[in-house]
């Protein structure tokens, strides 16, 4: 390597009176920027006489052709023979390790600006690069700040793993799910790795690679359409600001990193301008065409300045270099002193404050940067004490997102299912072929957030379920896969928020609440039964009532016989009559009680306290009984009771005559698949066994099947409400089996979901959603099905013959029975009189019949009728002989005597 003389001996020609503090620089040709930074820094130190007017730094530069200790050893020994106060570089691992060993052995301070994870480092070797452990902790802090629980770590080599150590340690915590991938070489390697990540829904990644590979990786991701709003690429390189990332700025992806060198700091601006101007001169700039100063370049500049400040505090004697021989044991006696000075210094350089703790640079600040429309922008900072501090507020972030959203046309996947989305034949007011609840909701969202949207129907008309291979179908699949055709930014339909789906996509707040329920045909109405007037009381009560009637009648009969006050003289004018009568014969008792039961009363009235008491209590019983009967009667005369064969899911699961099922693919089907409750497990087993014949492709098919056959459909209450308001022959069976909600879904990490979600909450609060719901569920229903109450009310307004027919039947039956009994009585009487009058039955029958007929035809004969009738035993009472009954009633006996 041809090294310019100025390089070999420092950049400043110096006079004999000036003391030169000789140092050695060892670098590989690829690290030319470090050489330039070192020389530039030394020149500036000398120019500004930082070491005083008579001292300068001289850098003797050596180039290392390869990464080997032999070459490094040879070149360092050559430098030592001339006497050196410090060694800068090299960067390559093997040479560096060897130089560190030599510096330790000969006690010559070794300063470096490259990342070095050797731990513990040789004492005499000191690095201004941030300590690798603290730096790794900063990366981990950022992951924690973002609350990433699922992410992928991509590493390049073993050093990457050391750099990512603290992030990898996060995986020990249960809340983090981390995948680790090694970067595959070349564009094809990047593409196959990123493709796999896309398929496996790995949207967030931390990439540790050299800065040179960053653009290639992003280009590969871009070719796969992955540099979009849903992906987050975080690079651990501190040099991202050097790159031209403008072509990715509008793509929407989150591209972030951290940096040590802040381009806007005055020191950096000065040096940058100075170096940038050199570009036009013959001397090359350490920037070497970069957009910003590379971290290691700035650190080399800082290392030289740090060294210079240490030199300036020591006298010439304290810095007297010695000519050392590699083969000998002598060391540089002043080296340790100089090293201690360097370690104790605190200096503010291009990379911020430089201060050493235990020989390492642990106290440093980092900027958190992100690619935005304005290019690479600082969004926050990190330091060891206060951790991550993101200065972009949530409000600012939202404002940025909103501004971007306003210029966007979102692709919305849906399923045509009334009333959520309905296909029109002509365009509506909004110029769309679709209408429905969801379209109105999207219109409201688009109005308030200012975005445009285009709707397309999911090609398989499926909502989305996880397949056996872990992939998702339906609308959820379209959000995840995002291939060139089936690529959606939002899924808006009657899409249920479920735990499984929320793992792979983001949902807004629910806009409708619902639950799974059963829809089935209303049972046929039965006309009221002929004897429905008996229904108000159960059979048991009727039987008890008859028993009570018989018992009370019999009691009355017995009590009346016991009590003397019911025995009366049938001829009150004849006080001497020895005959007393009791009106409560068994027949009269039965007549009295039935008379009160029918609320008619009769001419037999109790006279004794005991019988009156019984009568009183019977009337009370009758009062309550008749009131209860009357209160219930109307309902039973009018309600045509419906007997649904099933009343809930349990009934459905236990029978086999009614078939039942759900949608083939959807949250309802999954509800049964995942349930642990016995009833639902039983239903699932049935559905599993008969899947082909009972599961349907769409809600429409399900509802049609309910109407046409003996089939119960398990669907969501909102869809069922819509159907039963339009088809009065259908009804909901039982209550909801669960509670959940519909939400709008977006790919994981979508920046729009928060904004849309917030709008949905506002719509809920301002009752916009209720308005849309009413429009589609109620107002559009047209006819309103009558409820059972309505029908009952209408029926009770006018009772038809059907309602009270039974009463007529009883009346007719009773009348006929009465007629038959009267005929029997007549015949019996005829027979009796015939025997008495010693006439033939037929002559007596003819005579009596004639009398009856005559009696009926002439009112005037009625008196005769009674008179002439041979009524010899018309006496109803019981004749009483005091001699053989009731001897104990003295009073009575007195009367009788
Ligand atoms: N809303 C359901 C879903 O998102 C589809 C209907 C159903 O499964 O009943 O999967």
From TrEMBL:
Keywords: Cell membrane, Disulfide bond, Glycoprotein, Ion channel, Ion transport, Ligand-gated ion channel, Membrane, Postsynaptic cell membrane, Receptor, Signal, Synapse, Transmembrane, Transmembrane helix, Transport. One of its GO terms (biological process) is cell surface receptor signaling pathway. One of its GO terms (cellular component) is postsynaptic membrane. L-glutamate binds at residues 496, 501, 667-668, 716. Disulfide bonds join 728-785. It is found in: Postsynaptic cell membrane. Its main location: membrane. The record marks 673 as: Interaction with the cone snail toxin Con-ikot-ikot. Residues 866-876 have a biased composition (Basic and acidic residues). Belongs to the glutamate-gated ion channel (TC 1.A.10.1) family. This is Glutamate receptor 1. It comes from Dreissena polymorpha (Zebra mussel).
């Amino acid at each position: 390597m041809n090294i310019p003389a100025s390089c070999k001996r420092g950049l400043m020609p110096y006079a004999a009176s000036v003391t030169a503090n000789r140092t050695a620089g060892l670098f590989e040709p690829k690290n030319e920027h470090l050489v330039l930074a070192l020389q530039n820094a030394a020149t500036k130190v000398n120019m500004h006489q930082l070491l005083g007017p008579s001292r300068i730094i001289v850098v003797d530069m050596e180039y290392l052709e390869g990464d080997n200790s032999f070459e490094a050893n040879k070149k360092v020994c050559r430098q030592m023979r001339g006497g050196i106060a410090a060694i800068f570089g090299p960067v390559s691992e093997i040479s560096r390790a060897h130089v560190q060993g030599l510096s330790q052995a000969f006690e010559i301070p070794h300063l470096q600006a490259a990342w070095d994870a050797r731990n513990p480092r040789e004492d005499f070797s000191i690095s201004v690069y941030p300590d690798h452990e603290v730096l790794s902790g900063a990366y981990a802090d950022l992951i924690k700040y973002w609350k990433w629980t699922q992410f992928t770590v991509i590493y390049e080599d073993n050093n990457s793993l050391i750099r990512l150590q603290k992030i990898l340690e996060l995986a020990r915590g249960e809340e983090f799910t981390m995948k680790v991938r090694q970067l595959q070489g070349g564009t094809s390697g990047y593409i196959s790795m990123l493709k796999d990540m896309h398929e496996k829904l790995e949207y967030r990644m931390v990439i540790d690679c050299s800065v040179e590979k960053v653009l290639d990786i992003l280009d590969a991701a871009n070719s796969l359409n992955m540099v979009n709003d849903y992906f987050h690429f975080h690079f651990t390189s501190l040099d991202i600001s050097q790159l031209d990332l403008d072509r990715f700025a509008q793509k929407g992806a989150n591209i972030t990193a951290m940096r040590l060198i802040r381009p806007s700091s005055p020191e950096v601006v000065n040096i940058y301008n100075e170096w940038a101007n050199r570009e036009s001169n013959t001397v090359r700039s350490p920037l070497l065409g970069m957009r910003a100063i590379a971290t290691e370049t700035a650190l080399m500049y800082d290392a030289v300045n740090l060294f210079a400040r240490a030199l300036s505090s020591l006298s010439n004697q304290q810095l007297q270099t010695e000519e050392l021989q590699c083969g000998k044991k002598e060391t540089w006696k002043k080296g340790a002193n100089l090293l201690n000075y360097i370690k104790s210094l605190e200096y503010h350089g291009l990379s911020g404050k430089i201060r050493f703790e235990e020989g390492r640079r642990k106290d440093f600040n980092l900027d958190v940067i992100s690619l935005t429309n304005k290019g690479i922008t600082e969004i926050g900072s990190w330091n060891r004490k206060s951790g991550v501090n993101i200065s972009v507020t949530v409000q600012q972030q939202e404002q940025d997102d909103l501004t971007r959203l306003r210029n966007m046309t979102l692709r919305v996947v849906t399923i045509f299912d009334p009333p959520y989305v309905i296909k029109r034949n002509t365009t509506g007011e909004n110029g769309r072929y679709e209408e429905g609840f969801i379209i109105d909701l999207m219109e409201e969202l688009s109005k308030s957030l200012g975005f445009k949207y285009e709707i397309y129907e999911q090609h398989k008309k499926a909502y989305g379920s996880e397949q056996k291979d872990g992939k998702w179908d339906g609308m959820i699949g379209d959000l995840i896969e995002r291939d060139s055709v089936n690529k959606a930014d939002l899924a808006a339909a009657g899409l249920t928020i479920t735990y499984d789906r929320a793992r792979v996509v983001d949902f807004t707040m629910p806009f409708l609440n619902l639950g799974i329920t059963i829809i089935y045909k209303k049972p046929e109405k039965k006309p009221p039964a002929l004897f429905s007037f008996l229904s108000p009381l159960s059979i048991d009560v009727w039987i008890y009532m008859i028993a009570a009637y018989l018992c009370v009648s019999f009691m009355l009969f017995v009590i009346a016989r016991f009590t003397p006050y019911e025995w009366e003289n049938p001829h009150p004018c004849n006080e001497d009559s020895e005959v007393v009568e009791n009106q409560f014969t068994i027949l009269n008792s039965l007549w009295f009680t039935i008379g009160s039961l029918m609320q008619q009363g009769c001419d037999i009235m109790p006279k004794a306290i005991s019988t009156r008491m019984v009568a009183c209590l019977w009337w009370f019983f009758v009062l309550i009984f008749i009131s209860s009967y009357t209160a219930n009667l109307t309902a039973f005369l009018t309600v045509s009771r419906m007997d649904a064969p099933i009343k809930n899911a349990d009934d459905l699961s236990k029978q086999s005559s009614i078939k039942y099922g759900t949608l083939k693919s959807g949250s309802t089907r999954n509800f049964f698949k995942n349930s642990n409750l016995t009833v639902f497990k039983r239903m699932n087993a049935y559905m599993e066994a008969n899947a082909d014949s009972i599961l349907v492709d769409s809600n429409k098919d399900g509802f049609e099947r309910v109407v046409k056959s003996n089939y119960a459909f398990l669907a969501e209450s909102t869809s069922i409400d819509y159907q039963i308001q339009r088809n009065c022959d259908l009804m909901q069976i039982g209550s909801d089996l669960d509670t959940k909600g519909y939400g709008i879904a977006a790919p994981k990490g979508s920046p729009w979901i928060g904004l849309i979600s917030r709008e949905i909450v506002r719509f809920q609060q301002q009752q916009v959603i209720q308005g849309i719901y009413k429009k589609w569920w109620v107002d559009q229903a047209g006819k309103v099905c009558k409820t059972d109450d309505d029908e009952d009310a209408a029926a009770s307004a006018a009772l038809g013959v059907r309602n009270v027919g039974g009463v007529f039947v009883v009346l007719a039956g009773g009348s006929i029975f009465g007629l038959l009994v009267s005929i029997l009585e007549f015949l019996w009487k005829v027979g009796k009189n015939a025997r008495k009058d010693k006439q033939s039955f037929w002559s007596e029958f003819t005579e009596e019949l004639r009398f009856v007929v005559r009696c009926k035809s002439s009112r005037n004969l009625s008196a005769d009728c009674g008179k002439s009738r041979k009524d010899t035993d018309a006496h109803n009472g019981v004749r009483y002989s005091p001699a053989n009954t009731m001897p104990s009633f003295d009073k009575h006996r007195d009367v009788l005597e």
